[in-house]
Each structure stands twice: as structure tokens, then as C-alpha cells.
From TrEMBL:
Molecular function GO terms recorded: ATP-activated inward rectifier potassium channel activity
Main location group: membrane
Stored InterPro entries: Ig_E-set, IRK_C, K_chnl_inward-rec_Kir, K_chnl_inward-rec_Kir6.1, K_chnl_inward-rec_Kir_cyto, Kir_TM
Any Pfam family hit: IRK_C
Name the UniProt record assigns to this protein: ATP-sensitive inward rectifier potassium channel 8
Polar residues compositional bias, start-end: 408-421
Low complexity bias locations: 378-400
Family per similarity comment: Belongs to the inward rectifier-type potassium channel (TC 1.A.2.1) family.
């Protein structure tokens, strides 16, 4: 027996309707690659399994400077209080050995006057080390041991003051504090400049005090594999900038655009627009210089990954001349505009120069068309304004137009009247 066919067609059944329904795209979380240098310039690197920890104690001053502020303040306070307690114990032992703590001996000569307990010895230790004298407690000539302790405490106190105050001064005057006012553009751009495909970033200094001898270095960091099969997880490749011939010295008076020409020696030579988005590279920018006011060398760093590189964009100008003074508008510091740029790599453009020529011709035509549109819009606006003004003049001068006068003359044919104006 043949199976009975359904009355409803298969196309309008539940399986058919489900198959024809549009499905929403499923977005999966992309695993973020660890950056070698963060946007704020900090190094994203963790040191593990360091067995020789004693090397840090060999350079105590640098270790103290590199510590965080909370640890530095704790060490600062602990060191001073410990030294006061240590010498307070020494003064108490001197007084105890000389018999100054004996209540029966009140009128005899003491090593230190008015030191009768550990509390008074602690107060005398603070007065000696921080040179605060209240006049009540003082040392006498009776005990050479007390004189020796006084000399030792003064020397130790001077050393502690020099180390701790110097450490705090170096922490407050660190070079990275000056780097907070050295800014970089949020994104990097790739566009055609001077008939060459270029990688560009923008840097600026917010302070009026200049950076003397500013230098900029670019490095491309990516994972590479040598022909021998060796995997290099962090391969650093130096990148030359356009403004540098022998050095990268810059006159950082106003924001500058640092340009890198993508040529045969560039690590970006084989990357097209699509390959750049899929590549696993990071461009590190290092700005160094000497602070004009303090003479301390400072360094600012940032990096750009493939998602932060905009292909076919260019930075907008932000420096204008207003009343004889050059003005910088930092609100447009990172703004970019789209420009005609081929999506091919620099190698392909070198092999086929016609692609670049066609792209430049198209950009010129588009610019000309935009200029024509602007000019036509301006003409239309001016014509509208002109017609509006002429119409108003006509309306205003309507009372000055003389009225038409008609003259009637009789004719021989009858009583028809011919109007002669």
C-alpha cells in the first residue's frame, strides 16, 4: 500500500520553513593576543623562577627605587624606628652599667642627665638622631662609652637620612613622570605618501618645555621561524623612519607625523590589507630625549597591533596659524580621514606600478568631482541669494512702476473701440 501524501506541501512544512529562516550570525569571543608593550608604555613581561635573588640585594638603592610607594614608605618608617629603638637600648645599657638607674643614687654624676628609664632613653635617642634638643637630657663627660655611642648614632643617622631621602627624591623625579605628557596617536595609518606606501603615526608633547635631542625608534615584534626550524617568539626587527638619514633626531616643537616608507627592507613589505588584519605582529614606538628643565633622560613607549593599524587613512592637520601664532588643536590629534589607497602589498605595487597610478588617478578624479560639486553648490547658493534679493527689490519697487494708460478713438466701421496703449 502506497503512503498517503500530506495535504500541506513540503515547502510549507515545519522543516522547510526552518531551513529557509535566516539564521543570526554566531559571534565567538576572539582570544586576545598578549601585547609585548601596553598602550601606556608598560612592559607586559613577567620574570619567573629567578634563583639568584641575592643579586637584587647587591644593588640596594636601585631595588628601593624600583619598589612601589607603599613598600618604600614602610621600609622608610621601619628603618628609622628600628634605629631609634636600637640606640635607645644602647643608652639604657650605658645608664644601667654606670648605675644611673639606681633610685638611691640621685645626687651623683650621671652619663646622661635625666635618663631614668627606657622611655627617657628612647626620647634621648630620637633627640640625638634628629638633632632636636629640648634642654632636659644631655650627655656628660663622665662616660667615654656614652661619647662613643653618640658618635656612632650620628654617623648611622646621617647614612639612613642620605639613603632614604635620596631614594624618595629619585622616585619623585623619575623620568617616566615626564613621559606622561608625551602622547601618541591611538591608531597608526597606512596610506600613499610621495608615491610610496607608508606607515605613519603621530607624536606630540603637551608641555612647553621641550625634549632636547628627541629620537624615535620603531620596532616590529612578531613570532618567526628560521629556516632551520628554530622558533623565535619575540623577534625584534628595527624599522627606519623617513626623517632619519644618519640619526633619528627630531625637533619636537609641535606634533609630528613619523613616517616609515614600506620598501624592500621593511618587514611590512609583503603584507596587504587583508594579510595585515590576520597577521600576528606588533609595532613598538620608543621616544627618547632629555628634559630641558631637569636634564634627565626620559623615555615614552607605546605599541600598535594589527587591529590598531588603519589601512587607507591619513591624519588630519591640526596646526593652524591664528593672528600670527601657530595653534595646535589637540582635540583632533588622533582623527583620521579615508583616502584612496590600494589594498595590495608594497611588493605587488612595485611589481605592478600601474595599480598605484590608477589609484592616484581615481583619487584625483574624485577630488575634482568633489571640488566641482562644491563650486556648483556655492554657485547655486549665490544665485538663490541673488534671485531672492532681486525679487525683493521688485516687490519693494512695485509702487514706482507707472500704470498703463489706455486711449480710445472712434472708428468708421461702428462704435468699436481700439485700445491703444
Amino acid at each position: 500500500m502506497l503512503p498517503r501524501k500530506s495535504i500541506i506541501p513540503e515547502d510549507f512544512g515545519l522543516p522547510g520553513l526552518v531551513s529557509r529562516m535566516p539564521r543570526k550570525p554566531v559571534f565567538r569571543d576572539r582570544v586576545n593576543k598578549a601585547r609585548f608593550i601596553a598602550k601606556n608604555g608598560s612592559c607586559n613581561l613577567a620574570h619567573k623562577n629567578i634563583r639568584e635573588q641575592g643579586r637584587f640585594l647587591q644593588d640596594v638603592f636601585t631595588t628601593l627605587v624600583d619598589l612601589k610607594w607603599r613598600f618604600t614608605l614602610v621600609i622608610f618608617t621601619t628603618t628609622f624606628v628600628s634605629s631609634w629603638l636600637l640606640f635607645a637600648m644602647s643608652w639604657w645599657l650605658v645608664a644601667f652599667a654606670h648605675g644611673d638607674l639606681d633610685p638611691e643614687r640621685r645626687n651623683g654624676t650621671h652619663c646622661v642627665n635625666e635618663v631614668k628609664s627606657f622611655t627617657s632613653a628612647f626620647l634621648f635617642s630620637i633627640e640625638v638622631q634628629v638633632t632636636i634638643g629640648f634642654g632636659g637630657r644631655m650627655i656628660t663627660e663622665q662616660c667615654p662609652t656614652a661619647i662613643t655611642v653618640l658618635i656612632l648614632q650620628n654617623i648611622v643617622g646621617l647614612i639612613i637620612n642620605a639613603v632614604m631621602l635620596g631614594c624618595i627624591f629619585m622616585k619623585t623625579a623619575q623620568s617616566n613622570r615626564r613621559a606622561e605628557t608625551l602622547i601618541f596617536s591611538r591608531h597608526a595609518v597606512i596610506a600613499v605618501r610621495n608615491n610610496n606606501l607608508c606607515f605613519m603615526i603621530r607624536i606630540g608633547d603637551l608641555r612647553k618645555s621641550m625634549i632636547i635631542g628627541a629620537t624615535v625608534r620603531l620596532q616590529v615584534v612578531k613570532k618567526t621561524t628560521t629556516p632551520e626550524g628554530e622558533v623565535i617568539p619575540i623577534h625584534q626587527i628595527d624599522v627606519q623612519t623617513e626623517s632619519a638619514v644618519s640619526t633619528n633626531s627630531l625637533f619636537l616643537l609641535a606634533p609630528l607625523i613619523i613616517c616609515h616608507i614600506i620598501d624592500k627592507n621593511s618587514p611590512l613589505y609583503d603584507l596587504s590589507a587583508m594579510e595585515l588584519q590576520c597577521s600576528d605582529l606588533e609595532v613598538i614606538v620608543i621616544l627618547e630625549g632629555v628634559v630641558e628643565t631637569t636634564g634627565i633622560t626620559t623615555q615614552a613607549r607605546t605599541s600598535y597591533i594589527s587591529e590598531e593599524i588603519q589601512w587607507g587613512h591619513r591624519f588630519v592637520p591640526i596646526v593652524t596659524e591664528e593672528e600670527g601664532v601657530y595653534s595646535v588643536d589637540y582635540s583632533k590629534f588622533g582623527n583620521t580621514v579615508k583616502v584612496a589607497t590600494p589594498r595590495f602589498s608594497a611588493r605587488e605595487l612595485d611589481e605592478k606600478p600601474s595599480i598605484l597610478i590608477q589609484t592616484l588617478q581615481k583619487s584625483e578624479l574624485s577630488q575634482q568631482n568633489s571640488l566641482r560639486k562644491r563650486n556648483s553648490m556655492r554657485r547655486n547658493n549665490s544665485m538663490r541669494k541673488g534671485t531672492g534679493s532681486s525679487g525683493s527689490l521688485r516687490r519693494n519697487n512695485s509702487g514706482l512702476v507707472p500704470p498703463k494708460v489706455q486711449f480710445f478713438t472712434p472708428t468708421d466701421a461702428g462704435q468699436n473701440l481700439n485700445a491703444v496703449t
